[in-house]
Structures are given as C-alpha cells and as structure tokens.
C-alpha cells in the first residue's frame, strides 16, 4: 500500500454529476487531497457552494464549500499532480489533452479518448495491466512527456459486465459470445438527464450510442496488449479468440444501480457448471485489492444466493458501490450460463473507477 | 363475422384483477352478454359493488354494480354457455373441470391446464388451429361431452413474444434459438401483488416460475398438432425443428405493459435482413382478424420506426392493448436479429386473449 | 347548443405539451376544425409529424400528421376565427396581443395576461359571467376591435380548487378563509419539465410562483365584475367579503392529476355540515353544461363516497378529465370543513378549459 | 453521558420492519447489547437469518445472523433489562404488559398503550419530562413494580411535527391552531404494506386512523403532566391553552421520509416573524442531546435555506435520520406561519425514538 506523501488532485467538471461524486469521494480520501476545482467559465470565480446545484445525499464537504471554482485551464491547477475529469463529452477532448500536455496525470470518465489507440481504457478491477501503454503514450508526444498521460475508465454499463466476464475468462478461458440486456438507472444520464415524464411508470428501450459502446469497449478491456512487428504496442481487442458481444440497453425508473441480464458461451467444451461459475466469481480478486488500493472493494464480486437478488435498491451501496453484485447463476438453454449483474453506475461505474485507477497508478509508481 | 344471436357468459373469479378486466371488456361486447358473476364464498350473495375492490380506471359498468355474486358452481351459472376464468391457480383446477363436465365452454387465464396434453394453449393471434384438439378433449370424457371443453391462454409474458415469433416463422421458416429478457409490469402479479417497498426505485430480477413457463409454453404454442400412430392427436412442441428458448424475467416499476428484449436465430441461412423482418411483422395477420373476431386488433403487430419505441406508458393502450408493438428491429452480433416487444399484459396478455379465443370458437362453430 | 357552422381554429405553440393536448382534443371536436398549427421558427415549414416530439398516449391524429407548421404570426392564420395558445410564458405576451389586434379570439393557457385588468380569467365551470368584460377590452383598443379579444384560463392548480369553492359559495355564501395543500403531477411542468432525478422516490415541496398564483387567481375568479364610478368595469377580487387564501404547493411523482387537500371557513355561522357540503358539491352545475357546451362535463363535481378516493391514477380520466373529483368531505378542527380535490391538470386544468371557454363564447354569441 | 456498564436488551417483533431497524441500530450501539430476539411462534426456534425476510439496505449484522429467535415470552428474555417492541398492534398489548409485569423496561413503537393515562407517550426530542409518570405507573401494579414500565413513542407522522411545534412553543408560547398536511412514505405502512398497484403513479389521500392519531397524540405530547386534587398525576392534553389540530394524511410514492406541510397560529399577538421562527427552530436543543444520549442528533432541527428543501430523498439520512428538517418558513395568509417538515419515519419516527427514549431512561437513572 501507498504509505507516503499526500498528493494534490484537481477535479475538472466539478459542478456536474460525476464531478460532485468525485468531490464526495476525494474529500475523505487517505492520500489524495482536493486542491483545485475546475468548471465552466460561468462557474469560475464563484465559491463552490454558489456554483453548484448539489444533488448528493451527503452534504457538501465543509472544506469544499468555499473553495473558489477555477477555469479548466492547466495554469489554474498548479500544485496538482492528478486531475480527475468529469467533463461532458462535448468539451472533454481538448481540455484533457491540454492537461496531459502540461504534464498532469489525467483520469477521465468521459468517452472522448476511450477509442484512442494509445490511451488505456481501464476498469480497475479488470485490466490494470493496460497501464503498460502509458510509456508509449508519453513517448509519442513531441517533445516526449515525462509525467503527463490520459487514462480513461469505461462506460458505466460496460464496467458492470466486464468484471464478471474477466473473472470467468481467468477461470475458464475465452468467452465466445455474450448477450447483455441492461436495465439502467436514470443517474447514468446525468442531471437534468432523463425527463420524469419519460420514465415514471415507463421503460425506455433505447439509450443513444450505449449498445455500440458496450460491444466495443468490452473487447478493448478484455483484450490484451500485444506488440506489433514494429515494436509498437497495440490493444488486441480480444484477438486470441474472437468475442461476439450483443447489447440491448434500456432505461428504467431506478435512481442508482444498473441491473444487467447476461448470458455467455465459453469456447471450452464442456462449459463450466453454474456452481463452478459461482465459485470462480466469488474467488476473483483484483490487482487493485492485492496492491491495497484504498478504494478497491474487498469482494470484487459478491455472489448472491437468494433467488431474487441482486436488486438495485438493496444492494447498490454494498462496499460503497465499489464492487459488483452477481446473482441467479444458472444454465442458459441457448448459450451456456446466464446470470444477473448489479453495478453501481455512479460508484464503480464512474467516479470510483477513476479514483482506483489513480490509486493503481500511484501504487505502480507511474505517478 | 358472427352475425347472430347473443350468447350469455359468466365470469369465474369476478372480483379479482383479471375478473375485473373481463367485466370491463364484456360489458361492452357486441354479442357476449354478462349473465353471471362468480367468486369465492366470502363474496357470494353480495351485490358486486360490495364484493369487489374495484381497481380499474374505468368505473364499474352500471349493469354490473348490483348483480349478486354467485359461488363458482356450475348450477349457479345456468343460462350461460361460456365461462371465462380469472381464478387463482390454487383453486382454478377442479372448478374449471367441474364447469367443463357440466358442458360449459371454459376459457381460462389460469395456468392449471396449460400443460394438459388435451387442452389447447391458444394465443388467439397465433395458433387458432389448436382448436382442433377440442373434439378429442370432449371424447375422452366418460360419457363424452357434447359442448364442454377447456381452452387456456398463455402466460402474459409468453403471449407478447410468441406473436412476433409466429410471424417470423410464417415468413422465414423455423427459429432455432430465442433469447428473451423481460421487464414486466406490476399488474402482472395481480392485487395486492408486488409490495411497493419491493419495486419503487427498484428492479426485481426474478419472478417465480415465469422463466420456465415462457420456455415451455412457447414450444406448445408455436408447435403443431400432429397425429400419433394410434390416431390420437398430440401437441408436437415444435418437433419439426428443435427450438431452444432462454428467458430472463424481471419486474420493473411499470403499471401495465410488459417490455421484452428478444433475439432470435433462424434455421435458414442466410437469415432475413432487419428490413425483411420488419415487413414480415407488419404484414402478419391473424385468423382472428380474418374471421372478424370483434376484439381482434387490426394490426396484429404494430412496427415502430422511432428509435426509442415502443414504450409501455405511451404504447400499451394502442388498439385497446389487443395487439403487440415491436420496435428496434436490428442485427444481433450473437444470434441473427434482435428487437423489442411491448404487449399489454392485462389485455392481450390476459383477459382480451380469453375473449378473442371465445370469439374464435364461436366463429369456428365450436360453440 | 351551438347547432350551426363549423369554425376554423388554430393552435399557437402546437408542438409543446399543451399544444399537443389541444390538437388531440380539437381533432375530435364537433364544430371546431383544426385549420392552422403555429410553432417557433425552428419548427415552421416542417410537417407536424417531423416538428413534434409527440408524447400523448393517443397517436397523432391522421389529419394533422402532414400539416405544415406555420410561424406564430397572424397573417399565417388566415381563415381561422379562434386561436388557442399553448405558448410558453416567455413568448406568449406579445404574440397573443398581435393576434388580438388582428381580430382573432385568443384563448390562452399562458399566464401572461391573467392579471390584466381587462382580460377575463375564466374557469369555464365557474365564472362564465366574466365574459362581460370582453366588450370593454375591445373598446380600449385604438381603433376599437370588432372581434378580437383575449381570454385566459387559470393555472392548473387553481382550477381544481376554485370549482368546489364556487359551488360552496353558491350554496352557503362567502368563504372567509381557505387553506390549500397541493400534490401536483409532473405533467404540470411541461416537457422536459421535472428531471427524473428530482422526483423518483421524492417530493419537491416547492413550485416557483405557484403559491402566489393560486392565492391571487382564486380571488379574481371567485370575485365579481363590478362597475366603478367612471362606468368602467373592474374585477372586484372578492371584495364583497375579504377572502384569505393560503397555498402550499408540492410536486409528487404522479404523471397526471393534481391532488389538493383543502380546508375552508365560511362566513356564515353555523357553517354547513359535511353532508350539506357533499350535497351542494354534487348538485352544482355549470353554465357550460347548461348551455350545452360539448366539452363540458355532465358532473361538474363528482363526489366520492369511498374513504380513499379520489386518487389520481384511478380518477383523473373520468369524463375525459373535464370535471373535478372531490372526496373525504369532513369537519376540520381548525377551520370548518376539509376535503380532497382531484383535477386533471392537462384536461380541465389546461387545454380543456380553453376549449370550453371558446365553446362558451360561441354559445354566448361573442364569436 | 452514560459511562458505565453494558446493558442487555431484547427486541420483540424482531423479524418485522421496525424490528429489523431496531437490530440494525442496536448492533452498533455503544452500551446496549443485543441479547435476545423475539418473534412469532412461526419464527421461534429458527436462526434469525432463516426467519427474517431482511429488507434493509445494510446487510444483517454478522452477530445476529445465527441468533436463535425466541418466542415473545418474558421467560425467554432472561438476562435483558430492556425490551424494544416492534410488535404489530394486534398482538402488542398483552405481550408488552406481560413484560412489564416481569419487571422489564418496555419501549414500544406500537400504538396500543399510547392512550393509557399512566403510560408516557414520549418523543425524545420533545417531552422527556413525561418520564415523571413512571413512578405512578409502577405503583399502580399490585404488587407495585420495582423496575418494570412501558414507555411508548409516537406515530411516525406525529413525531415529525411535534418537534418543531415544541420548539415554537418554547420560544413563543402556546400555539392555538395547527393545520398539517402529510405526504407519507410507503415504509410507514410496514411490509408488505402498500401494494405497488396502489401507489406507483398515484397518491392515496387516506391512511386509516392516522389523522385521529396525529390530532390526539400531539396534545398529549405537547401538554404537561399536572397533579390532580387526589395527588395523582395526569397528562393535561395541553390544557393551559386549548390547541386545535387538523391533520390531512396522504400516502405518496416515496420509500422513506414523511414530508409535512404545517401552518400554525400562535396565541401571542403579534406573532413571531418568519425570521424569528427560523432562529427559534435552529436554536432548539433537546434534553436528549444535553444529556449526551448517544443516538440523539446534534441538530434537533436542521433549518434549510434553499427554497426547494427539505426533500425526502436528499435529506432523510442527515444525522442518520435522528433529527428533523424544516424549510420554507414563511407567513401564512390564513394562520400565522407556515413551513415544511421532513422527518425520517423509520428513524426518528420509529426505532430511533424508542432507542433514545431508552437512553434517556438510563441517563435519568430510571433504568
């Protein structure tokens, strides 16, 4: 575990939904110290309490209330080594690049750089090994960067499903096909997000771009980093065994917690039994926990035995939402095994992932 | 179309959720005349208005308010030719049999006789041909029945999905595999049914027995009626081509309307395109419509073009809930084609199905 | 009843929430004929189907789908005699005035002219007599108008409560004090309106400006029209007996239907009994019904006997939402009598009111 | 503060909704030690984990999972000094009396003994002084009790409102009239409680017996204990100044947290200003806090400044739900001052109140 110095951090997009969550989590962090808050020009110059429309169930941390919000420019973040980005996708791209260029370690929740061939897309409980791409990312800059880099985390619905999938691949070898059907919480859409008239007494069977993200991101995350003939590293997109992913995404009237029905087919024949799957999920531990990242959950995957669990309202806050819940592991008449996943979309699905990624980078000595 | 005489009908379980719906529909029917209402001993002898805890958005039909509730015994239903059963499964079995034995045509929404090898399980927009089993069902009685029989309709979640599946098999030949994920309305559980503490801000990823029902009923409904070597008719359970069905059932905070994410693989290679599928669904017409059953929908399947439809709140009442809605027809990376179905669980998924079944029986001269 | 000619009408703000409701109602009207749809410049020139994000449970009327949306300028509405305004308050003021000046009869759901001393604020089941102000309104223009005028209807929460209050004053004389606590549906805020994160599993005990509107509008509506010394007519704001109104407004997770807890104190001592109040409410009939306005409800006020009614989900659609529901009439230990009101905020609380107002104007020969 | 020994406690009705909450709170208590769990015969003999249908968002405390459930008879609770009763009203009466007779201190959440003239009805942040009745309650037994007594806490909706009322009476003298309109959470009805079909997209403007409880309990709690001519103590029901209370109770689709709109008229003329009221509420401190009861909240009343607060979802967990939230303090045109109260019905409104009452009894040396 990281035993040493405190590290100053900043938050980009500090007044938004994800930004608020970053602040709530970082204000109680053992070694990250909230130093600078950045938001749009409209908010800059105001005390945080006046700039934000705070929507968390915990009140604004006292230390943050009167901090003056800055613009999202690197020169305003002097003194920070790390910035966490909760920026909206329409502005995140160039701002995050500017911070990287100024030698900040950028941990982003935005989608903008997820498909960048030199930017790792890291779900901290799955593919910490992808940090190996950082060196190449720095070297590509002119002049090469010494400390700056960007790491993104995955879409909230992707995160929930890749954790059990990684556990299964680790135990039983490659997965060949995966069908996912999601029931996603309204908080996944930010604020104001989903109009209430669209979702009270209703389901919306469509979330723009979400299915494509899940089908693509899953391959990048579960795939490896291999070296091409020219010596350059590439994300192999699960090349050792083609993986077909089909996602169907729905919005449901739930505040927090994405529930996902998953069915998988393994390459290996015969496939593992439901009991073997349960044990493999239960036994899975992440590098983040092994390396003592303080925000990593003890139980990466909590496996429920009751027939009707996990449920978002009852299970989303287990371990502060930092792990995932799995239940109803059983045989699938079409593929091999089906089960239900519940992941807290605003914790492990968003801010918590970025923070554990940063903890991993510190523990690995990259920061 | 049936042009002739009025037919007196009764309702078993008249005070329950499905019974109330039967009453609302039958009170406006062109040729069925509500004649007798039956319920438990506790309700018998009371005027309907005093016996029922009416929970429909339309008020109790005036003609029914003061009707005296009877016990569910055949001798109390003299004057009726047809009874509709909205009885609970714990009492439906023997009561429905007693009415059959007394030469009533019984149309049941209960699950008790669905697996009976001589009782048709009919979704009226799909397998009206299964009425051919009635003769054998009557003949098996000792002495043989002249008029009595039982016909059941399917579970509400099964009904929604077999209608588009039937349309696809008609157009493109056998389906080989089918994955279904449901988001089911609370009204599917009756009243009092789902406690509010279990479903507000929540999803329950389990409905007892529901997945098994969907996986089994689909085969009986989509299969044919064939003749064994002994001359006896049997339901072949889709024997011409084995069909694997996998269902994952969830309860969501929606009042009415089951939404289902479906993915299918066809036997035929190459499979039809999404556009061909859309056209086949749109073009599908039911025998019930062709035979002018008054409660059958003009559009058996309404195919939505908008990306975010169908939605339960907006689309469940189209055609009084007598048809089904399909949307988001697109390719599936794992199977062939995926789409979203919305069916009104209390209309086509329950009472409306029984009534159209009875209309079919009348039009076919079985009654 | 109006027996004669068809009258062409237009809708301003046709793509908005209230506009959609106007269209749904007018498309089935016996003598108003939908002739022109107006919306913002962004929508103008498009077929209605492309301009609107239709959110009604009934589908877009066939005749309207391809109508080309116009700008909200009088010259685009030639051929119409009446325009219904569902415009937002930030633009409604001058647009409605321009139509009046061009000799249109304007029936507005917007708040802009409600406080105008020459514009009647008419709840059609209450104060049809206020049409007497139209002549003065026209005469004030230079040159005087022949046909043009503006009539507004009330805020949706005001409408629900003034109807039973009017019935009580008619039967028992002036009310002295009135306490109102509302539980208002999300549809009252339009679309996108209330963010779902604000209202799922929540109550918001504040609606900006709503309490002031209720406290003020009630006085204008329940008050009379008197003549000043200079011969000019004025709304007397219930001057014959000062009426104190206190409103507390809340938003609750209900789609449609405002529920209001009301308590009143009468000037008259002793006050009427609950039974007398019930009878007076039940017996109240509106001028709109007496004059056979086709959209007026037979039961202006439906009085429920069951202890737990009215409820928005079960009762909001009674009489297509054109009347109001009252229940739980009982003594109040602090004032005299308390009761619960339910009014459909998008029907009698909005579009239906404007339409009945227009029907009244036709029946009274003002149009 | 109590500095000494641990005290063994038991829970009656341990498997119910309130019982579960007692267990969650007591398992982390500084000096109460969970020793015995009692429930119905059906549960007795089973390990708690098997007997309970646990519905809390925190998992079952490890120490409790395997505790064997006992019957609710005093002999099964040897070793306990205190029992907390979460029993249903249909059984609570005689069981609680049996425990009192066996010299247990009984802290009950049930309504059965609230109207008993010798049983204090104590909201711990309001009327700790009513413990003075215990001596008389014990003496009335034959033979007199040494340790046994019953103390009840109030109905969840009463609790929310009497706390600010007590603060106002302390600062400004007697209140003369009080109008209360509640929007109560579904958890107030226990489990299974409110059927979801009754409350999704709905409001139920009636809760059986609730209004009478609020109107009566408020008087007992806010009144004093006076001595009659015969030397016997009596609860004076606010006799120094008659207080009229009118309650209107509604159920809304909220999981936890009762929101109440309150308006009061003071005896004193002129009444205090809204600002004076705000300050008095803010400044109010309870005996429970002064005496260092560990479960008492630092802020008895948290006064919100934002126009749209308190809201149940955002504010119910402040101070673990042990205090109350007040907002929107403003003038009332009919009475004097109106405001909004939010109280957590399962914390300060139920289990937390019983526990603080027990802490008070310990601190006062009654136990």
Molecular structure report:
Chains A, B, C, D: It holds the Pfam family Semialdhyde_dh. Chains A, B, C, D: Pathway: Amino-acid biosynthesis; L-methionine biosynthesis via de novo pathway; L-homoserine from L-aspartate: step 2/3; Amino-acid biosynthesis; L-threonine biosynthesis; L-threonine from L-aspartate: step 2/5. Chains A, B, C, D: The active site is at residues 156, 258. Four copies of one chain form a homotetramer. Chain A is of the alpha/beta class and 367 residues long. Chain A has two domains: 7-155 and 351-363, 3-Layer(aba) Sandwich (Rossmann fold), CATH 3.40.50.720; 156-344, Dihydrodipicolinate Reductase, domain 2 (2-Layer Sandwich). Chain A is 29% helix and 22% strand. Chain A contains twelve helices and 14 strands. Chain A has helices at 17-26, 48-51, 62-65, 89-101, 134-139, 156-172, 196-199, 210-222, 274-283, 287-290, 312-315, 347-363; strands at 7-12, 32-39, 70-71, 82-85, 105-108, 149-152, 175-184, 225-227, 233-235, 244-251, 258-266, 301-303, 324-331, 337-343. Chain A has a six-stranded parallel beta sheet, sandwiched between helices. Chain A has a six-stranded mixed beta sheet with strand order 10-7-11-14-13-12. In chain A, helix 11 links the parallel strand 12 and strand 13 (324-331). Chain A is globular. The model of chain A has no long low-confidence stretch (mean pLDDT 96). Chains in contact: A-B, A-C, A-D, B-C, B-D, C-D. The interface between A and B is large, with 43 and 43 residues.
């Amino acid at each position: 575990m990281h035993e040493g110095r405190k590290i100053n951090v900043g938050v980009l997009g500090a007044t938004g939904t994800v930004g608020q969550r970053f602040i709530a989590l970082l204000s109680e962090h053992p070694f990250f110290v909230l130093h600078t808050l950045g938001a749009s020009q409209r908010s800059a110059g105001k005390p945080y309490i006046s700039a934000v429309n705070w929507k968390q169930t915990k009140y604004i941390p006292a230390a943050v209330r009167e901090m003056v919000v800055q613009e999202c420019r690197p020169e305003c973040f002097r003194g920070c080594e790390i910035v966490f980005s909760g920026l909206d996708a329409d502005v995140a791209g160039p701002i995050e690049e500017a911070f990287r260029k100024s030698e900040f370690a950028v941990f982003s929740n935005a989608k903008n750089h997820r498909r960048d061939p030199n930017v790792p897309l890291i779900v901290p409980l799955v593919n910490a090994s992808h940090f190996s791409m950082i060196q190449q990312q720095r070297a590509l800059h002119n002049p090469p960067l010494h400390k700056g880099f960007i790491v993104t985390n995955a879409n909230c619905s992707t995160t929930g499903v890749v954790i059990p999938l990684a556990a299964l691949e680790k135990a039983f070898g490659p997965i060949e096909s995966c069908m996912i059907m999601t029931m996603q919480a309204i908080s996944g859409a930010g604020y104001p997000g989903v109009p209430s008239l669209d979702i009270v007494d209703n389901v919306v069977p469509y979330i723009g771009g979400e299915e494509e993200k899940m089908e693509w991101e899953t391959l990048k995350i579960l795939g490896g980093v291999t070296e091409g003939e020219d010596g350059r590293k590439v994300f192999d997109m699960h090349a050792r065994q083609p993986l077909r992913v089909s996602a169907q995404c729905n919005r449901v009237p739930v505040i927090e917690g994405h529930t996902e029905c998953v069915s998988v087919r393994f390459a290996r024949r015969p496939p593992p039994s439901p009991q073997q799957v349960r044990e493999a999920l239960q036994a899975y531990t992440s590098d983040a926990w092994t390396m003592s990242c303080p925000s990593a959950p003890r139980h990466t995957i909590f496996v429920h035995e009751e027939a009707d669990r996990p449920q978002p309202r009852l299970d989303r806050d287990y371990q502060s939402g930092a792990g995932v819940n799995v239940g109803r592991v059983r045989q699938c008449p079409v593929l091999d095994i089906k089960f239900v996943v519940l992941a807290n979309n605003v914790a492990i699905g968003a801010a918590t992932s970025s923070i554990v990624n940063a903890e991993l980078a510190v523990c690995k000595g990259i920061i």
